[in-house]
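Q: Give me the 3D complex with iron/sulfur cluster.
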Amino acid sequence: MSHDVYNWQLNRKMAFPYPEKRPGKQAAWVFDTNKCIACQTCTIACKNAWTSGKGQEYMWWNNVETKPWGFYPLGWDVRLLEKLGPQEWTGDKYEGKTIFEKAGHGEKIEGFLPAEEDFQHPNIGEDEISGQIEKGHYIKIPHQQWMFYLARICNHCTYPACLAACPRKSVYKRDDGTVLIDQKRCKGYRECVRGCPYKKSMFRIHTDKSEKCIACYPAAEEGEQTQCVQNCIGKIRMFGYKSRWDRPIATNPIDYLVHIKKIALPLYPQFGTEPNVYYIPPINVPEVFNRQLFGPGAKKAVELYRNAVQDKSLIGLLMLFGCTNRIVHSFEVQGDIEDGHCVGRDESGKEIVKVPLKEPIVIREKHDQERDVHRISVS
Ligand code: SF4
Ligand code: SF4
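A: Here is the predicted complex, encoded as structure tokens.
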């Protein structure tokens, strides 16, 4: 049986096996793709925290792949896009079919089960650019070839395909929006692995059960951001709680970036799961590619990012990324771009972080008088 549910990312109702039920708050992340350096610190931080056991060797709940050629598991997105076939957006409304609507007779979801070896090459395509540079060509600006780093975790979707697919009802969504697999109920049928369009539910052969990102819920319950956020070297990530799409709160950082400014966009919204990891799209990538990955709002988001320096609230929030391990529930910008600050507050309204809107530039003297040494630049 199928129900009509509203998906704000598609701007229409869609078919889903369960009735619409939104959690009180939704765990959500914003990733700024423009700042990621693919150092994989997030990947290792997550692995050390959650997947260092037997049977978890190829289980990377967090991975960072180089687009367009990186995939973990192999071809996860292009294989599904091929199955869905060409689909259309009209303005900001998705007219095509989601993975739930495209499912064949007797199926709930259009998906596929990757082979075990598809998970064995998490670094495939790393640092490869979109095409070849012809011999004799020199670098021109803008670059003819491009690539960017796409950091990925489970999206803790509003309409989780893993949950919809599970015949044992082992997958559930908590009231903070986190999607979890009940390890006692799971029998390892791998329907969640087949159904998840992002391939973020993974099978653990050692226990014969499926596992996935748990949004570091023990930390989040104590007001801490997730491991991948706390450890991010590039300060590209922010974790928090999102309100409903039709009731955004302007002082909530995630609401502001996703619903008010619309600079942070879901990954492959056309799949239909309403994912809750939101990306600021890369500014160096062709518009059509960004549009396929992040939907019709990608062009506007790139323009906003390019002009962020003139926007106090936006630049203030971007400066807050990676500056505290605590979850920022509200923010406030004080003063002007030149000398102002952005303040982040916890759930009780207490100030937990304060950053300048503009970082001061310090030019060091060639001769350090205190230590009596000369600083030599070798660049
Ligand atoms: S990303 Fe996949 S595993 Fe995570 S909630 Fe969505 S469908 Fe489930
Ligand atoms: S730690 Fe941050 S900068 Fe490094 S790969 Fe992960 S997301 Fe990118």
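A quick observation: The chain has two domains: 3-129+141-280, 312-379.
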